[in-house]
Amino acid sequence: MKIVIVDDDMLVAGALKTILEAGEDVTVVGAGQDGSEAFALYRKHLPDVLLMDIRMQHVSGLDAAKQIVEEYPEAKILLLTTFADDEYIVKALKYGVKGYLLKQDYQSILPAIRAVCTGQTVFGTEIVSKIPQLLQEKKTFDWGAYEISPKELKVISLVAEGLSNKEIAGELFLSEGTVRNYISNILEKMGLRDRTQLAVYYLKAIR
């Protein structure tokens, strides 16, 4: 198996190389210190597995993983971190990485590499215990996808409360004309017909 290691701590990278090359079927063909190097190393070596830290300077392992999987959907990436952070886990699942392990669980790294190489998805015990809860949690509606600003979101919330333009203007210290412009722009951005649709949309989004 050809493995590329990316970790900004050279001592950790060296220890990982030693652990992996203890397996007779493993060869470390490249090493980097930053997510920006990960893409170049992956493209150069096309490794069987990319073993990569998450928290690195400049470009994180998660960002690098997203970029690599977008260009190489078949990429097998195993992320290592010292943090069982919920946000990291959700992003790792979303980006399609094949494994997520805590560095402390070093004895599982080589078996995980072999499992990922055969097409399995591997998450450490502590990570696995979190996944069902994370998948059941309500997702926050992405207003940013519609380019809705914080001020516009406040206007939307007041519309949903049933306030008139005049009342919203008083609440936000704006003119009625400005409020009308806000609402017109919001409706256009979201492809909605009127205030009623906007209010319904908002209330569904926050449930």
What does this structure look like?
The protein is of the alpha/beta class and 207 residues long. It contains eleven helices and six strands. The chain has helices at residues 10-20, 35-45, 61-71, 86-95, 109-117, 125-128, 131-136, 150-160, 165-172, 176-190, 195-206; strands spanning 2-6, 27-32, 49-53, 77-81, 99-102, 122-123. Helix 3 (61-71) links the parallel strand 3 (49-53) and strand 4. Helix 3 (61-71) runs parallel beside helix 4 and helix 9 (165-172) packs across helix 10 (176-190). The longest helix has 15 residues, at 176-190. The radius of gyration is 23 Å and the shape is elongated.
Topology:
Blueprint: E1 2-6, H1 10-20, E2 27-32, H2 35-45, E3 49-53, H3 61-71, E4 77-81, H4 86-95, E5 99-102, H5 109-117, E6 122-123, H6 125-128, H7 131-136, H8 150-160, H9 165-172, H10 176-190, H11 195-206
Parallel strand pairs: 1-2, 1-3, 3-4, 4-5, 5-6
> Strands of the biggest beta sheet: in what spatial order?
2-1-3-4-5-6
Would you tell me the structural class of the helices and strands?
Answer: alpha/beta
- Report the total helices: 11
Percent range for β-strand residues:
5-15%
What sequence of helices (H) and strands (E) makes up the elements? Answer: EHEHEHEHEHEHHHHHH
Q: How would you state the average pLDDT, rounded?
A: 84
* Strand element count: 6
Tell me roughly what share of residues is in helical segments.
Answer: 40-55%
Please summarize the sheet with the most strands: 6 strands, parallel
